[in-house]
Amino acid sequence: MSTNNKTNRQKxxxxxxxxxxxxxxECAIETIVEVGYAQASLGxxxxxxxxxxxxxxxxxxxxxxxxxxxxxxxxxxxxxxxxPQIEVLTSPKDMLQKYIEAHLTFADxxxxxxxxxxxxxxxxxxxxxxxxFATDHDENIFQPIEDILRLGMREGAxxxxxxxxxxxxxxxxxxxxxxxxxxxMRNPQINVKEYIQELVTIFDKATRK
Length: 209
Prior knowledge:
Layout: H1 3-11, H2 15-35, H3 42-49, H4 53-59, H5 63-87, H6 92-109, H7 111-123, H8 138-154, H9 163-186, H10 192-207
Helix pairs in contact: 2-3, 2-5, 2-7, 5-6, 5-7, 6-8, 6-9, 6-10, 7-9, 8-9
């Protein structure tokens, strides 16, 4: 099924159907958190949701589509949380700080979903064995950071780095954000505010002119 067909189908859903899909996605997240990607079968997800596997099959073509929706819904929710906070800013320095701060705050507030997405992205593969999410989202993730960096260079707020350097910095920022998500799983008691402040300070010093 194409993305357009999925979108059209979702637009035509009733409130009850959307609520059921949301429930199934939430139960998929909780199941992955509890037993991991490999063991998160449709049967276990259905049992947690107190429904039959047939109900899941009515709303999702298969397990792959369901887990894909777990990832998509995370990125949509994250985008809705982060970018309105950035779009009201005019200073590239403030934009970069907010980009980091908002992503880490969102991850902190959605720990189960973060863990489930990490499991899916790390383990989901295509029919030819390649990681399913390895390339699809890279440009969408890196582009906003590079846009902020280029704006900062034009306005004289950041040092003059090359296009290659901008990609390396963007990659490093994203890896730092993803690394924070891993640290949340490893150390749930982490002081999030201090972590955010340290990371913001590091990249402020790394980019300032």
